[in-house]
């Protein structure tokens, strides 16, 4: 079928060379009316073309890259998120989280969501046992949630998940019939919540797909330090996705997804008081993890993002304007 809408506002693009191709792509994309999208495409095309020119990228290498990304899509489904795993292992997930959910003391730092979060976790009461794993070492998790002024934050949706004592998440079980090792709680009027988990163990990220082959080619190990995931969500507060890592894990300083931060490394203790054991429904000697989460309000996070964006643009020698709360250089607006 012949074209029905031939553009007349652009100069002809002929005699394209390695010297002028990038500018011509920018010229075509400049017709986009969304200033943020126009800016994003300008930068990604610039960096991608520069990468090709700097490395003198071969056709074989480019086709390998295309095949790699195609295979990532093919292996992914509702329970396996290979693209998230790629983003994690390249450090992009940590970088994007740090940009979009900036933290300053006393706020709790965030970390990667990871590829194993699901949306089918069941609502649970305080004290609930996450795991059916009979071989696990039990762990009482006892936490508080406060705002930056130190006030308790009640009714926060607390989504928690972790692997089992063998280092596998429930979604890696081919016989999975429902959620295990995960649940959703709500903080009480004192901003407190507690549940029974297991002492997390290190585990390898999936190595049977394209990302695993990439890590092998790079000579990288796949082992994540043991951790418990938390997602804290309440209207009026900036979403916190984070994890807590028991100290002393052999992979604490070489996490393949770049998720460990010193403020999130915790020391485990034990429940040694009879009154405490009775109160929380656990046995004496149960391992204990305590932590005080601090949330930023939406407004605090928004102001911090804007401040950081302005400073980043200034370092580039650019003035910045904002479109839908997202930065673009003034010359691109």
From TrEMBL:
Molecular-function GO terms, alphabetical: catechol 1,2-dioxygenase activity; ferric iron binding
Keywords, sorted A to Z: Dioxygenase, Iron, Metal-binding, Oxidoreductase
Keyword Oxidoreductase on entry: yes
SUPFAM superfamilies noted in UniProt: Aromatic compound dioxygenase
Gene3D superfamilies reported in the protein's UniProt record: Aromatic compound dioxygenase
Cofactor(s) needed by this chain: Fe(3+)
Pfam families reported in the protein's UniProt record: Dioxygenase_C, Dioxygenase_N
Span of domain Intradiol ring-cleavage dioxygenases: 114-295
Family matches, as InterPro entries: 1_2-HQD/HQD, Catechol_dOase_N, Intradiol_dOase_C, Intradiol_dOase_core, Intradiol_RC_Dioxygenase
Residue span, Catechol dioxygenase N-terminal domain: 34-105
A single BP term in Gene Ontology: catechol-containing compound metabolic process
Similarity field: Belongs to the intradiol ring-cleavage dioxygenase family.
The protein, known as: Putative Intradiol ring-cleavage dioxygenase
């Amino acid at each position: 079928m012949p074209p029905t809408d031939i553009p007349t506002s652009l100069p002809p693009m002929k005699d394209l060379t390695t010297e002028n191709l990038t500018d011509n792509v920018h010229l075509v994309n400049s017709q986009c009316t969304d200033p943020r999208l126009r800016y994003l495409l300008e930068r990604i095309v610039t960096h991608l073309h520069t990468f090709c020119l700097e490395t003198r990228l071969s056709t074989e290498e480019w086709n390998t890259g295309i095949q790699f990304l195609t295979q990532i899509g093919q292996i992914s489904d509702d329970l396996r998120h290979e693209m998230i795993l790629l983003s994690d292992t390249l450090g992009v997930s940590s970088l994007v989280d740090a940009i979009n959910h900036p933290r300053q003391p006393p706020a709790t730092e965030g970390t990667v969501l990871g590829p194993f979060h699901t949306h089918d976790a069941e609502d649970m009461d305080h004290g609930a046992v996450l795991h059916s794993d009979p071989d696990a070492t039990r762990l009482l998790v006892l936490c508080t949630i406060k705002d930056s002024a130190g006030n308790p934050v009640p009714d926060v949706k607390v989504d928690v998940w972790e692997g089992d004592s063998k280092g596998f998440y429930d979604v890696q079980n081919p016989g999975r019939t429902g959620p295990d090792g995960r649940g959703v709680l709500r903080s009480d009027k004192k901003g407190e919540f507690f549940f029974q988990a297991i002492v997390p163990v290190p585990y390898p990220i999936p190595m049977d797909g394209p990302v695993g082959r990439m890590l092998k080619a790079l000579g990288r190990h796949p082992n994540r330090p043991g951790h418990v995931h938390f997602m804290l969500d309440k209207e009026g507060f900036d979403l916190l996705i984070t994890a807590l890592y028991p100290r002393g894990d052999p992979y604490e300083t070489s996490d393949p997804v770049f998720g460990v931060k010193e403020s999130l490394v915790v020391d485990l203790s034990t429940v040694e008081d009879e009154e405490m054991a009775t109160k929380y429904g656990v046995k004496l000697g149960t391992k204990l993890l305590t932590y005080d989460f601090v949330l930023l309000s939406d407004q605090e996070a928004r102001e911090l993002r804007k401040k950081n964006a302005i400073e980043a643009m200034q370092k580039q020698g650019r003035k910045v304007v904002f479109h839908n709360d997202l930065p673009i250089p003034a010359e691109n607006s």
